[in-house]
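Hi all, long-time lurker, first post. I run a small reading group and we've been trying to get comfortable going from sequence to structure in the token notation. Rather than ask abstract questions, I figured I'd post a concrete chain and ask someone more experienced to write out its structure so we can walk through it together at our next meeting. Sequence below, copied exactly:
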Amino acid sequence: MTIDATQAIADTRRWVDRAVIGLQLCPFAKAVQAKGQVHYAVHAGDDLDQLAERLLAEAQALRETPADTRDTTLLIVPHALHDFYDFHDFTGRCERLMRRAGHEGELQLASFHPRFQFAGEDEDALGNFSNRSPHPTLHLLREASIDRAVEAFPDAADIFERNIDTLDTLGAAGWAALDVGAGAGGRP
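-- Answer (accepted) --
Happy to help. Here is the structure in token form:
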């Protein structure tokens, strides 16, 4: 399936709205989404060096843009890094590049992938779905925003366990019913 930028963004927005916010997998996401402070960007190519450069450019743009305008960035990669382990290795490379570029202490990098798998978990374990997005996605977050969110949600450390419980209760059929995969963003 060929995914253009418009479709990749629509898919990702649908996933954020239905899964991340709808299931409250991230209690911090609703406010920034409602305020329009989530920047959705797409890297349409498959060259990883260019993707790394794009990520660094997005990181710099995030730092230069006021938080009340852009609080976070989702860089969607529909045409590369389809293998989760390659994606995981690339994410580590990007974390090192961000440190070298001086973003440590200002920005954090999170990652989401259609085949995300926590270490030591079975591929089909429902807990993995807390980090499963329609396309490989690199998420840039402001550390100051994370700190504010954690202050507002004192039980932030419990989010992971609550997500596991939510997904276990939802089950595989419930996740499928959310219809948040690649290509879903064009459907009602």
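A couple of things your group might point at:
The chain has a mean pLDDT of 94.
DSSP finds six helices and four strands in the chain.
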